[in-house]
Amino acid sequence: MAAPDEGARLTYTKDVLPILQENCEVCHRPNGSNMGGMVAPMAFTTYEETRPWAKAIAKAVSNKYMPPWHAAEQHTGQFEGERGLTQDEIDTLVGWVEMGALRGNPKDAPEALTWPTVDGWTIGEPDLVISMPEPYFVPDDLRDETKYFPMELTEEMLPEDRWIKSVEFRPGSEVVHHIIATPFGGIAPGNSPSEYRDGYSAKVEKGTQVVWNMHYHKEPGPGTGMWDQSSLGVRFYPKDYVPEHVLTTIPLGPFDFAIPAGDPHYTAGATHTFAKDALINAMMPHMHYRGVSVNYELEYPDGKTETLLSVPRYDFNWQTSYRFIEPKHVPAGTKVTVTGVWDNSADNPFNPDPTKTITWGEATDEEMLFGWVSFTNVDEDATAHQGI
Question: Please, which residues have CB within 8 angstroms of residue 41's CB and are 6 or more apart in sequence?
């Protein structure tokens, strides 16, 4: 969209709604996308819904807080689902607000979008829905806790081995911080449902023991407790489908660090060397409140280096998975190093306590770095995973 002409009369129906439809309504709509437990609290599908938020929209797009996307600009065009507005689109939204956030002629409005959803499932009707084995009450006095709930996939749930196509988690309460349920994956704030690209998958075997790793976080106090029974929905490839590539996901990160009190720039990391030629599918960095940036660096066997992913402004609330449009080939012997930077100073507005030395821990007010890497070996034979 071209930048608005100076003095042009910008309106919601003609100028703003097309931008919102293309970039915002996927979340900002009734029953919008569930991004790792985060659901947009307002819709922008009508003028009446949007107008009260006009100034907030202008501020959020001006500082590029919205749409949320934190990979460095050097990666533009590399990843699926990249979010972002052009400068012309930002100027249009800001200009509309400065001109009074006018409605405009309803006849100028584009046709309303139709969003595919089945009972709120973004991935469509699941083939299998499973829940935590029992409800759990998160008590009033709890601030931060990690709980584990084991369960077995029964014959009725999964009578035979299947290959995953997509997975969507549904937190059962607002105090869920993250969920990990191997082999289905997991979610953290800001995550989208997982969709395997054609030809790639991970396998679920019948009788699998699933452990729900539930991280709860909230403000303690009388009446703040609530029940949780989170769930997930999964869609499978057809029963006779055998993928070309079987994905493996590994977490890279240090465990023995100690971030000094007040330190504004503490770094630590971890490495992995690919034993075989590999195709890197995606990366997802995970840190807590003090995390400010993450960098994935490749070192090839010939000594050449390359930045695989730079996230210069890590945002705890938007823990994005960055999936390459085309998987990236790296030869055997290539080393990937994941390095995180933490700000434990009083200048970090998200820092719970700058007077403490911080070590690794599961609690949100502790710290960690998991630089998840999803990849497959080029010579991976999926039939080896079929039990034949």
Answer: none
pLDDT at 319: 85
Produce one character per residue of 110-135: b if its CB has 16 or more CB atoms within 10 Å, e if not.
eeeeeeeeeeebbbeebebebebeee
* Block residue for tokens 């949007």: 50
- Report the pLDDT value the prediction gives residue 387, as an integer from 0 to 100: 37
Q: Which residues of the chain have pLDDT under 50?
A: 1-2, 385-388
Q: Name the phi and psi angles at 61, rounded to 5.
A: -80, -30
CA atoms of 158 and 151, how far apart (whole Å): 13
**Quick check: 323 and 82 in contact, CB under 8 A?**
no
For residue 244, give every residue at least 6 positions away whose Cβ sits within 8 Å of its Cβ, in sequence order, or none: 199, 200, 382
| Cα–Cα dist 339/285, whole Å | 10
Q: What was the pLDDT predicted at 260?
A: 98
DSSP β-bridge partners for residue 269: 339
